[in-house]
Amino acid sequence: MTAPLDFFRYRESQLCCEKVPLADIVARVGTPAYVYSAEGFLSPLRQLQRGLESVGDFTVCYAVKSNSSLAILKLLADSGAGADLVSGGELFRALTAGVQPNKIVFSGVGKTADEISSGLNCGGSGIYSFHVESLDELDLIQSVAKRLGKNRARVAFRFNPNIDAKTHPYISTGLKRNKFGLNRDELLEAVRRAKSMDCIKVCGLSIHIGSQLLSLSPLKSAFASVAKVILESEEILGLPLEFVDLGGGLGVSYKSSGKKPPRLKDYTALIAREFGKKSRFRSRLKILIEPGRTLSANAGVLITQVLFRKSRKSKDFIVVDAGMNDLIRPALYGTPHEIVPVFKTRKGATLRRTDLVGPVCESSDCFAQDLRLDQRLGQGDLLAILSAGAYGMSMACNYNSRTRPAEVLVDGDSWRVIREREKLEDLIRGEHF
Ligand SMILES: *Cc1c(COP(=O)(O)O)cnc(C)c1O
Known about the structure:
Elements: E1 8-11, E2 14-17, E3 20-21, H1 22-29, E4 33-37, H2 38-53, E5 58-63, H3 70-78, E6 82-85, H4 88-97, E7 104-106, H5 113-121, E8 129-132, H6 135-148, E9 153-158, H7 184-195, E10 200-206, H8 217-237, E11 243-245, H9 264-275, E12 286-289, H10 293-296, E13 300-311, E14 316-320, H11 329-333, E15 339-341, E16 351-357, E17 366-374, E18 382-385, E19 406-411, E20 414-419, H12 424-427
Parallel strand pairs: 4-19, 5-6, 5-12, 6-7, 7-8, 8-9, 9-10, 10-11, 11-12, 14-16
Antiparallel strand pairs: 1-2, 2-3, 4-13, 13-14, 13-18, 15-18, 16-17, 19-20
Helix pairs in contact: 2-9, 3-4, 5-6, 7-8, 8-9
The structure holds pyridoxal-5'-phosphate (PLP).
Pyridoxal-5'-phosphate binds at residues 63, 65-66, 84, 86, 107, 208, 211, 247-249, 290-294, 390.
């Protein structure tokens, strides 16, 4: 479990990422800018890897969609991570960054023939597994593999255990009303069908029941229920499966105070109990997990600059230069991020009720309501929107024809730009008039 200020700390009243003052970075790259801590990604990765070592063979497949910048993918791949993808674009990114194909899994309900073909072709023998979510998809993989002359397309079936992850409805994926995965009957039917297909090799099962889970209990039920379906599938196949992919979804803390999400070591202990040496599987299955947010959320912040203050009787509005196109989570899910000034509020400052809003022409372009901020905070002052490493830049768009922010990666006392701020020409690339 990580918290918003684990990798960002005040040093002599200046907010720093690791050892670098954020103000120094934005003096060079401007605002808005995403700033990431390398340690912020690597520390939870190492904790998960350590926890899984005792379970047996494993791969941590980082969920690329949570933050898909090449430098981040490379950083994680260099520390042993694989990748969990949901599109051909993410496959292209992962391969470009140097992720090994045999550590790549491909999830998602709508893979196209082209995407399947890229997955089968990469690195010669293809990716580690296609996580199949429908019978139609299974048929398509068989036919694409046949056309390409690949006789062992590795697949797993994504099981939908009909478990309520008790999270925001937009990020809940393991209920039967959700579009994801196969229920038990559909899954066993798929296993039967796959058994007679000459280009398919069924290697495992996968689950992923939702995101930002704040309790282990839905995961515990999901693990127990996939364990049963593994045994049933093996019975049909007459062969043992190679692996189980337990998905991602573990929550992080978006507030320095408040309800704490599960600890990573309790999560890996739960995995050990169901699949480890002392379980009925006796560590015979390779374990895959697909953490996204767990690795990226608290590794990044979005730095923004105050443009204007508007004072009303009841409260003030501070308009900043970052908008919902840069970080859509508050507008999309109503999730407030913790927001702190880059230069610590001085003692005795008068605080005023303030809404922090962006410049985009939508009322939902609001990062936080009723913050208590120094009433002297004004034009040019810098704020850090915390816990912005996951589903921040990867969901950013160009709405209102706004250029997307720069990204910076800090490692100890050094830092570098890992993505240039977009230029106006980037906004019209590919257009004809
Ligand atoms: C999004 C996603 C993940 C990662 O979810 P987090 O909540 O970021 O950990 C993992 N697996 C699949 C299949 C996903 O779609």
